[in-house]
């Protein structure tokens, strides 16, 4: 009460307006209504923040938590793929985590009912409802299609809900013709609801069809074409096609820069080289990153220093459909925010998303393809010497025509414990090593039993471990049981035996032949 009295006295002293509200109004649910009335009575003019800007700002502030985002994502896919609560319940029953998924569905069902009720009370529809309602009108004959020709662009990104609308329109007119243009090599929007199987199984979905291949590309040369085509067709599910490039050269046009230098330093060197090569000609460069945070520091300063080079940074997703003379692809490392990204969707999304593909990182591979094919002349890939992207490792070691700046060999030890990470130097102390998934994976390689200084690492898949201390070079053997520890000679009450350095986590033991024990 002293605080209330002080505030009233202060505003009276300075002649300022004091708007008073009370806790009982909040408890009774009238606080915002009363505040709105009092502010208007005081002459306040409202300038509402657009909803899109408001939610963007809330997301930046971390006020929208992961669970809220998950519910929003499920809501979008639930509608765009024309699911029902009943269809989700059957998916829950067949899922691997029935208890968690069932708990989520109970929450989602309540949220969905309230969301739809608020749309109805406001006389509004969202975009997914527009498509679904239009489909229902066509299927019920409440709308008669007047279209003899239906054209769909970017068909590889179509969702089940939109495909159902197309089918409903076609069924109304036996003479209607559907004409679709798409490229399954550039299908990169599963997270938005697209289902690539609709394009791969076109005839099964839409009936008899004729396929016309657009097999000429006028953007890039034979080197970029050959490399990108070989790379994308590693996935046997991609529709095979052979593209004819618009120009030809014998020189490698995909450069890999493997260096410990910061992205900004490498980018600056590339820009200097390209400025010299262009001899005053205006050229364009797209700097692409898997995520926004990869935008180089000081990009505006680079634009001023190289005025005859048009420089733009975009995420790879946003670059689709664009082109430039050169592409610089940043952040090609492994890890959660690497490329391919190792961020996994919450398993709950499997209830509403289209079936995932069985080829590893299939959509990330297509996204990488999109990135490198934005270039007309050449592509520059920047990768660290450790935590190197699996895609870069493939380009270096699998017979692709690439030019490498820095160490060409990409030899990295896969983590034997989690099997998905790689062994990398600990950032705070390069004298020790951890799994790239640390702290989620606890594996650390064993110390060298000979010099006690180095660590035992295998230079590649299945290779024997060698001490990292250049003055030692000791060779060892992996434990035959866990493949993660080192097999070492120990002494026991019954004589010497082979044991594992990961004991007691691994209890491997083996007899030592007498020739060795002596």
Mean pLDDT: 86
Contiguous low-pLDDT stretches (5 residues minimum) are none
- By secondary-structure content and strand pairing, the structural class works out as alpha/beta
Radius of gyration: 30 Å
Q: Biggest sheet: strands, sense, closure? A: 6 strands, parallel
Oligomer: single chain
Count the helices. How many?
A: 18
Give the CA-based shape. Answer: globular
The share of residues in helices is 25-40%
End-to-end Cα distance: 90 Å
Beta-strand share of residues? 15-25%
Spatial order of the strands forming the largest sheet: 7-6-8-9-5-10
- Count of extended strands: 17
Would you give an account of this structure?
α12 (222-232) runs antiparallel to α16 (362-372). With 518 residues, the protein is α/β, with parallel strands linked by helices. The chain has helices at residues 2-14, 23-28, 31-41, 51-60, 66-80, 85-94, 98-121, 127-139, 160-172, 197-200, 202-206, 222-232, 263-278, 299-305, 316-319, 362-372, 390-397, 514-517; strands at 149-152, 177-180, 216-221, 244-247, 254-258, 283-289, 309-315, 324-329, 375-383, 403-406, 423-426, 429-435, 456-458, 465-467, 487-492, 495-500, 509-511. The chain is built from 18 helices and 17 strands. Strands 7-6-8-9-5-10 form a six-stranded parallel β-sheet. A three-stranded antiparallel β-sheet has the order 15-16-17, with no helix packed on it. The protein has a two-stranded parallel ribbon with strand order 1-2. Helix content is 36%, strand content 17%.
């Amino acid at each position: 009460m002293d605080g209330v009295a002080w505030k009233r006295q202060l505003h009276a002293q300075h002649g300022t307006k004091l708007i008073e509200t009370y806790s009982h109004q909040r408890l009774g649910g009238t606080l915002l209504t009363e505040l709105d009335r009092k502010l208007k009575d005081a002459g306040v003019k409202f300038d509402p923040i657009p909803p899109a800007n408001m939610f963007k700002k809330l997301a930046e502030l971390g006020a929208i938590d992961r669970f809220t985002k998950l519910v929003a994502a499920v809501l979008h896919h639930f509608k765009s793929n024309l699911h029902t609560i009943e269809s989700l319940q059957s998916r829950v029953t067949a899922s691997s985590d029935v208890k968690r998924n069932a708990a989520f569905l109970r929450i989602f069902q309540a949220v969905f009912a309230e969301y739809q009720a608020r749309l109805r009370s406001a006389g509004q529809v969202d975009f997914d409802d527009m498509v679904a309602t239009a489909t229902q009108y066509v299927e019920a004959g409440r709308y008669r299609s007047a279209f003899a020709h239906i054209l769909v662009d970017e068909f590889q990104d179509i969702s089940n809900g939109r495909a159902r609308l197309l089918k409903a329109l076609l069924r109304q007119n036996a003479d209607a013709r559907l004409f679709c243009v798409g490229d399954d090599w550039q299908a990169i929007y599963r997270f938005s609801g697209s289902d690539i199987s609709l394009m791969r199984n076109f005839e099964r979905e839409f009936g008899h069809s004729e396929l016309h291949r657009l097999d000429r590309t006028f953007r890039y040369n034979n080197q970029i074409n050959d490399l990108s085509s070989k790379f994308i067709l590693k996935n046997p599910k991609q529709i095979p096609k052979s593209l004819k490039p618009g120009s030809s050269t014998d020189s490698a046009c995909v450069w890999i820069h493997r260096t410990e230098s910061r992205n900004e330093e490498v980018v600056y060197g590339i820009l200097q080289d390209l400025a010299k090569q262009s001899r005053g000609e205006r050229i364009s460069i797209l700097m692409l990153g898997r995520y926004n945070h990869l935008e180089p520091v000081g990009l505006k300063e680079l634009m001023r220093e190289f005025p005859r080079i048009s420089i733009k940074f975009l995420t790879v997703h946003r670059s689709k459909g664009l082109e430039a003379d050169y592409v610089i692809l940043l952040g090609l490392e492994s890890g959660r925010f690497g490329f391919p990204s190792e961020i996994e969707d919450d398993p709950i999304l499997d209830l509403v998303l289209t079936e995932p593909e069985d080829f590893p990182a299939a959509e990330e591979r297509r996204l990488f393809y999109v990135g490198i094919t934005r270039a007309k002349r050449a592509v520059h890939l920047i990768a660290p010497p450790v935590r190197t992207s699996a895609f870069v490792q493939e380009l270096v070691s699998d017979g692709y025509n690439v030019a490498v700046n820095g160490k060409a060999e990409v030899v990295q030890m896969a983590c034997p414990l989690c099997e998905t990470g790689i062994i990398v130097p600990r950032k705070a102390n390069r004298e020790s090593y951890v799994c790239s998934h640390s702290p989620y994976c606890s594996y650390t390689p064993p110390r060298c039993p000979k010099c006690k200084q180095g660590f035992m690492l295998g230079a590649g898949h299945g290779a024997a471990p060698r001490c990292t201390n250049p003055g030692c070079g000791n060779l060892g053997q992996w434990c035959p049981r866990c493949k993660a520890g080192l097999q070492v000679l120990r002494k026991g009450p019954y004589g010497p035996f082979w044991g594992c350095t990961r004991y007691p986590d691994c209890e491997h033991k083996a007899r030592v032949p007498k020739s060795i024990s002596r």
